[in-house]
Design a protein that fits this description.
The chain has 332 residues and is of the alpha+beta class. Helix content is 24%, strand content 34%. The chain has a domain at 171-319: Roll (Diaminopimelate Epimerase, Chain A, domain 1), CATH 3.10.310.10. The protein has helices at 3-23, 28-43, 74-80, 121-134, 225-233, 272-284; strands at 46-54, 57-64, 91-96, 105-111, 143-145, 148-154, 160-163, 188-195, 198-206, 210-215, 244-252, 255-262, 266-268, 294-298, 301-307, 315-319, 322-330.
Length: 332
């Protein structure tokens, strides 16, 4: 019996008991009215979902493994993400058919504002845990995303390590219009940028989606997060596809602390691709040495990042993904 079947049986038993209790002593008129109300609710268009979070970065997961494209529109997904009138979440993730036998599944995401990112680091871990809970148990998954092939590996301790692939450092491919200024001739490392009435030292890295990384001495006092975050996200003169924004404080050679303003979602408790990007930016800027596993503290907890700079150039991210609840939601 799968994880979700057990949950469904328990839910059905509870619902049955509740119905039996509320029906006792009800007049025929009340019973008829209630039955009609329930029928109307049942007739409404609904979607079955499961909720997961990775360090507080929370997502609505939809099982579309029999489909090539998401069953919900961006507009419907945006409404589901509303924390007052919907389920609530930073995005909706769809498990889809693979495009070929070279992959196990495809993943698509709509952000809480209805936009579609190329990838999501915390989302891919939640996606992998969702697949395992659905019964598609495997040591690893070959996942097709808009950022290319991503490979999450299920660890014995319950964490998930994701092969995030190689970072994209070429300025035009991030994309950013800022000029390359690093020794490799292609990277943007602590380049000057005027935005929101301030001068910033900006590094630009893509992990399949663009990131603007800024190092500060004090995360609490050196930035106006609620003002600087959205201004930098929407600075299309420098980042034509908009950008995720990470503010980073160096704690030690193996420990960084960050706050993130996500493109299309705003402030979140964690960002997996951003965590990878800022470790790369820190190494390039000489803030920390290369070759170490780096602990990154986010508002929601810690992720651990490794960049195999001297070998295959791949980035690996390790962290948790946790099931929260399942249900059925009305589509408004």
């Amino acid at each position: 019996m799968t994880f979700f079947k057990k949950a469904a049986i328990l839910s059905a038993l509870c619902a049955s008991s509740a119905r039996a209790f509320t029906t006792i002593g009800m007049s025929s008129k009340q019973s008829s009215t209630t039955t009609g109300s329930l029928a109307l609710k049942a007739a409404a268009t609904t979607v079955e979902f499961s909720k997961y979070e990775g360090l507080g970065n929370d997502f609505v997961l939809v099982d579309d493994r029999d489909k090539d494209a998401p069953s919900l529109t961006p507009e419907q997904s945006e409404k589901l993400c509303d924390r007052n009138f919907g389920i609530g979440g930073d995005g909706v993730i769809f498990a889809l058919k693979p495009p070929s036998d070279d992959y196990d599944f495809s993943m698509r995401i709509y952000n809480s504002d209805g936009s579609e990112p190329e990838m999501c680091g915390n989302g891919i871990r939640c996606f992998a845990q969702f697949l395992k809970d659905l019964g598609a148990d495997s040591e690893s998954y070959q996942v097709n995303t808009l950022a290319g092939r991503i490979i999450p590996v299920m660890n014995d301790d319950g964490t998930i390590t994701v092969d995030m692939g190689e970072p994209i450092l070429k300025a035009a491919d991030v994309p950013t219009t800022l000029g390359a200024n690093f020794e490799d001739g292609i990277s943007v490392v602590e380049q000057d940028l005027e935005c929101n009435g301030k001068n910033w030292k900006v590094s630009a890295v893509s992990m399949g989606n663009p990131h603007c990384i800024i190092f500060v001495d004090d995360l609490e006092n050196d930035i106006d997060f609620e003002s600087d975050g959205p201004a930098l996200e929407s600075c299309v003169e420098a980042f034509p596809a908009k950008t995720n924004v990470e503010f980073v404080q160096v704690m030690s050679d193996t420990h960084l602390k960050m706050k993130v303003w996500e493109r299309g979602a705003g402030p979140t408790l964690a960002c997996g691709t951003g965590t990878c990007a800022l470790v790369i930016a820190a190494i390039q800027a000489g803030k920390i040495p290369s070759g170490n596993k780096v602990r990154v503290t986010l508002p929601g907890g810690d992720l651990f990042i490794e960049w195999n700079k001297g070998t295959d150039n791949k980035v690996f991210m390790t962290g948790p993904a946790t099931y929260t609840f399942s249900g059925k939601a009305a589509l408004k």
